[in-house]
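Entry 12.
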Amino acid sequence: MRRRLAGRSCFKMGMQSLSLDESFLQFDETVRNRAAARWKIAMGARIHTDVRRIFHALTVPEYRETWMCSPGQGVRSRVAASQTDERFVLDFYRADRLDARVTGSYRVRRWRKLEFTWQIDGLPDSAPSCVEIRLLGDFGHTRLELLHRGLDSEAEYLWHKQMWAASLHNLKRLFWCAGCEECRQQGKKYAGLI
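Predicted 3D structure (tokens):
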């Protein structure tokens, strides 16, 4: 349940109302306590565009739908994204049936660092986890670094690893340039020509 208190965004968690920053602190502490002995994913991607465009691809629901995908995505797979303020929902469909739902919130730290709370429904024994994304770069190239920590099981780890690998590849493809040798080689590799 969401409500406004003194101009601050608050979320009702049980009987306690917390501001977005307080809920992140509480969530982050919970994830950190579990993360030491849990699965985590660290990935990176070099993308041929500026930081501002990547930032929008990460935070605008319509853009998320274009690059995020289910593991083993097929022709009849898709992602539906919605958002209210900093809260988001990602519905992963496979064969026109809801395969998994991710809910959470995000906050921006200094424009180039985003932190997402991440809760997936549809996988057994799934617990809240945390995704951190850093954007490093200049005007023409951006290095995206992703860290997903707090995953509780091998099944969760494998699902997320495949999802992030395929999704980051799709994000890179959105910004491929025809005149760049690196992009041409990546396109051939993806198509199985190399």
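Annotation: Residues 21-191 form a domain with the Alpha-D-Glucose-1,6-Bisphosphate; Chain A, domain 4 fold (CATH 3.30.530.20). Helices lie at 20-35, 51-59, 61-67, 154-174, 181-191.
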